[in-house]
Specification:
21 strands; alpha+beta; globular; homodimer; six-stranded mixed sheet; 22% helix; six-stranded antiparallel sheet; 27% strand
């Protein structure tokens, strides 16, 4: 089942169920005006949503206007982003010239969740000098998870899977990281691809709490990377359990994988510019690629083996803020 | 003006305006069912709320049932906690045996905001072995703040002032801090004192973006500290500007001062146990005070020079989680 959120003037938008080809949709309405509301009573909502999905499969529904699509969750109460790909961690250590992080637990920070940009929104930044970078990721949206839930139990709380661009300002990141407090200025709002999907809809590509799909990234219409999500060092269920160790997780909590990265980056490329720069440092002693400029475009979409794009595409342009 | 939130079964509770002596209240209702709603359109809401405050001052209203009071914001979209007291930073460096943090910017992390415990709620933890500690703080609640707002401008976006207990699990904190990602497991939900007050209601005690009041803390009915808020190295307006450098702040964002601490801690004591332990390390080479045990109680209230308590008191007991 695919879900999306259509702009309707309300802060949380309007929940719609989307056909499996991403072309048609029906509005949900009733008790489930928004996805956040549906997540608050998922077992009841899911019955209604799957009924609508069945009607869509039978040919009902209206064509989708892509321009009306927002992030599936335009805001939520909690966004916890992991860094579960070891290759990303290793390369960022080179990029940031920092010591290796020693931890037997997943790496995770809490980021801003009051706004997720829609898939086609222009994304405003104050300055190119901050080092504007994309980070292609997968994420899960969970139901309410009680404190102390273990990893095996956590799997059953994963309701939806999403695709995220975790925008990052690299030239602000190292100084914040060195305080130990995590990132505030280096992590502006993220963007989300239009469709949130249930785990079953990914078939075999959802395996051991990992999204085993290539995440295809184009920067200014040029292929930049197509790393696969299967190399997560911790599965999403382990990230959920880590997050829930000392807190209840509120329904609608979004948990990110961190930048998708593969050991064979020479072949598949990268999901963020900072990694490519680190690879250049390793090869040439210095980075050769700059960060994004105003007007630059990035396109991110995961691909099924048959070419289908379950989350749709993020396709955005970087622009200066206007005050 | 004092505001509070009464339990009514809804997630955000019911907004009430409270008399200056904290004894009586009127429900607001209408467009401003909750404080979060009022903050979303503050210029309109404030007129209505001040009218009710005038009627309270004239003797209207009903007695408050303290047991019905929740946190003024039982949840919000964003909680950013600073660490603005240099004495706290210096002592935590001793407590955590970490290097001095070099930063010319305020220290700040993003914590969970989907739940703030009410002032009298028992607070559940999984284990005493995690090192349960209180942290007495002040905080501000801001209106929507545009990205790039400077410190001078930021002052005018501060709508309300609150008093917070930032519960911390010290034995999980150092390992998380060393990752550079900030705290997840070490920072469970905070608690809030019952009353949120407008800056004008503090009179001269609100000065240069600082709450110049003693924060009186009792641990198991024994005086633990009474540090004053005036020694913040950065004022709240500077913390707001720091947070808004690369993001718009959503209305209802709560920004914390970090643990209130004074250079003359020998006289005024501390606002968290970790600091007292650091002071013991400096004096005796090792900490003598343990962290909290299940059943322990903490009471936190700021006091005006005339003895009034503008935020009311946080009075809580630490309990084990029940699953």
């Amino acid at each position: 089942m695919r879900l999306a959120t259509r702009a309707n003037g309300a802060p949380d938008g309007e929940l719609i169920v989307v056909s499996e080809d991403g072309a048609r949709a029906v509005a949900v309405g009733g008790r489930w005006l928004s996805l956040l509301q549906a997540l608050g009573d998922w077992s009841a909502a899911e019955v209604d949503l799957r009924n609508l999905a069945t009607r869509l499969a039978a040919g009902q529904g209206e064509p989708i206007d892509p321009g009306s699509l927002r992030a599936p969750l335009p805001r939520s109460w909690q966004w916890l982003d992991g860094s579960a790909f070891q290759t990303h961690a290793d390369l960022m250590q080179v990029a940031f010239q920092t010591d290796s992080i020693r931890s037997d637990k997943p790496l995770m920070y809490q980021g801003l969740s009051d706004r997720f940009y829609g898939p086609f929104d222009p994304v405003p930044f104050r300055s190119e000098a901050d080092g504007i970078d994309f980070e292609g990721e997968f994420g899960v949206i969970v139901d309410a998870v009680p404190m102390g839930t273990n990893a095996a139990e956590a799997m059953s709380y994963i309701r939806l899977i999403v695709q995220i661009n975790d925008w990052s300002l690299r030239n602000l990141a190292v100084a914040e990281m060195k305080t130990g407090f995590g990132w505030i200025q280096a992590k502006p709002p993220c963007s989300m691809a239009p469709f949130a999907v249930t785990p079953d809809s990914l078939g075999a590509a959802w395996h051991d709490g990992r999204v085993c799909l290539d995440l295809v990234i184009d920067w200014n219409e040029k292929r930049f990377g197509s790393a696969n999500g299967r190399e997560m060092g911790f599965g999403f269920h382990e990230l959920v359990a880590h997050a829930a160790a000392t807190r209840d997780l509120v329904a609608g909590t979004i948990i990110g994988s961190g930048t998708v990265a593969n050991a064979d980056y020479a072949k598949v490329g990268s999901s963020c510019i900072a990694e490519r720069r680190a690879i250049e440092v390793i090869a040439d002693g210095r980075p050769g690629t700059g960060f994004m400029a105003f007007g630059d475009r990035v396109r991110i979409q995961a691909q099924m083996p048959n070419g289908e794009q379950p989350f749709g595409a993020i396709a955005q342009k970087v622009v200066p803020i206007s005050r």
